[in-house]
Give the backbone structure.
Amino acid sequence: MTSEHPNTFAIAQQQFDLAADLLNLPQGIRAILRVPQRELTVNFPVKMDDGSTRVFTGYRVQHNLSRGPVKGGIRYHPNVDIDEVRALAMWMTWKCALVNIPYGGAKGGVIVNPQLLSMGELERLTRRFATEISILLGPERDIPAPDMGTNAQMMAWIMDTISMHRGYTVPAVVTGKPVIIGGSLGRMEATGRGVMLMVREVAHRMQRNVTDLRVVVQGFGNVGGTAALLLDQIGCRVVGLADASGGYACPHGLDVTAMRAFSEQHPTHTLEGYTASGVQHISNAELLELDCDVLIPAALEHQITSANAPHIRAAVIVEGANGPTTPDADQILTERGILVVPDILANAGGVIVSYFEWVQGLQEFFWDERDVNDRLERIMIATFEHVWQIAQTRNLPMRTAAYLLAVQRVADADQTRGVYP
Ligand code: NAD
């Protein structure tokens, strides 16, 4: 494994091993938690608009089921591979345990560039993939949600496909679906809102005013776009933003609202071609090393590695993406005194409100947006406080502190249930 081509699952296992060592986990439980419980690979045909048939490969991985049904997003991206899905499933287990919602972790993905498919092709792909993995899905078994490259419409297709098979509507089989068919108010913004809350909490601990913070965000989709907008709204100065089209920087602050409107109108939903006075077009690599107070990687894995960690100029990193920082980089950041709010905490807002959506769907009783946001905020802040206390008292990075709390909860559940038969 090199930092140029890290194996995502090896990284997830390395992070787990560190926590397992510190917790002195017994060998048996360590062996159980180190690998996913179930993995399904599917190769499935899709009729394309030109009349041809293409076969796509997809995965659904369930890491651990000891605390409840499994939960995790579905990713459409050309670089999806089984090890990435395994890692993302494991991280979901820790995330759900950390914020103490009654789920285990899962993840799914299809090797596809969704930008190159028509809406019709995407619908047929999604419905066939949902059918292939339907042997695992169900409100009491495994509940998907959106991730990179998927959105509320695709969740609607999955919900409809499963409902057609059953012969009745099953709203709680997916979360992140449109509100009109049982989605939760506040779900779309939940992950970005959680990221914003973490920035606010860190500012509070560092006795900094949020209006003095200069923020850089990598990724301008569901997580990065919402986080940038909400941070802008609470008075932070967003001095850098990037998406798949590259980076955009302005030391005086970017017009996030205008940029959001621009990318929403763009056929590829990117900032490609965006120009404004004082805005410099930079590379993604340069963006990560911009002078700022808070850096929010909210796009892909492995963005902060041993190669660029020595050059990061942010005082704080709040991880909107899953797995943006490699363990080598983590060590360098710790030595340099850069505070990292880890992914399993910082981006947990999405799964928290997914949990609310599932509960609302099961009860057929829907909450108003203020209820959703208030409950989200209470859980995020209480969890931040808990992790912060462990980190302070044991002099540990926040990631390690979060892992100690999460892994112990899952290990306790597994041990209490025992090994069957
Ligand atoms: P998205 O598809 O909505 O947005 C992804 C963004 O990243 C887009 O703006 C895209 O242009 C940009 N991007 C792609 N390649 C890039 C590159 N090379 N450099 C810079 N930017 C690039 O995805 P999302 O849902 O916002 O997910 C982003 C990350 O957050 C992923 O790691 C995902 O697993 C994680 N996450 C998402 C949620 C959620 O609720 N959506 C919850 C928790 C974690």
